[in-house]
Amino acid sequence: MMSIYEILSILFCLIGGFFFLAGTLGLIRFPDTYCRLHALTKADNLGLGFIVIGLIFVSGSVPEVIKLSLIWFLALVGSSSACYFIGNHIHLLSKVRENRNGPDI
User: Fold this and answer.
1) How far is residue 60 CA from its own chain's centroid?
2) For residue 13, what are the contacts with CB-CB under 8 A and spacing of at least 6?
3) Among residues 3, 86, 2, which one has the least CA distance to residue 37?
4) Which residue has better confidence, 66 or 99?
5) Alpha carbons 25 and 103: distance in angstroms, whole number
6) Alpha helix ranges (H) inside 30-61
7) Contact residues for 93 (Cβ-Cβ < 8 A; gap 6+)
8) 67 half-sphere exposure, CB direction, 13 A CA radius
9) Computed over its alpha carbons, how large is the radius of gyration of the chain?
10) What is the overall mean pLDDT for the chain?
């Protein structure tokens, strides 16, 4: 018979998988780059967070919990930084195209 910790682990991992799936659908379905970036970073961070929480329930030791938490933190920092740089680059490209074409009359 499964313990309550194993059931919670499965539940949190399934919820995390759902958020990963939702982020993938957002990447495919949303119209512009900013919406796609938002869907990917938010959904993937939540998905990874739920999976890490699920794995913490069945981890065997404190060092494993620390490592899982550190992985989640580094993924949060990395994905938000990458999202910022990509969004900033796209914003600057749109300004360059706007200046090249001149003002709309």
Assistant:
1) 26
2) 50, 51, 54, 55
3) 86
4) 66
5) 36
6) 33-58
7) none
8) 7
9) 19
10) 90
Closest CA to 2 of 14, 60, 11: 11
φ and ψ at residue 58, rounded to 5 degrees: -110, 5
pTM, full prediction: 0.83
Which residue from 65, 60, 50, 57 is spatially nearest to 16, judged by alpha carbons?
50
Residue 2 sits at the vertex; the CA angle it makes with 61 and 65, to the nearest 5 degrees, is: 20
Asked if residue 78 lies in contact with residue 40, where contact means CB atoms within 8 angstroms, the answer is no
Mind listing the pLDDT tens digit for each residue in 41-82? 889 999 999 999 999 999 989 999 999 999 999 999 999 899
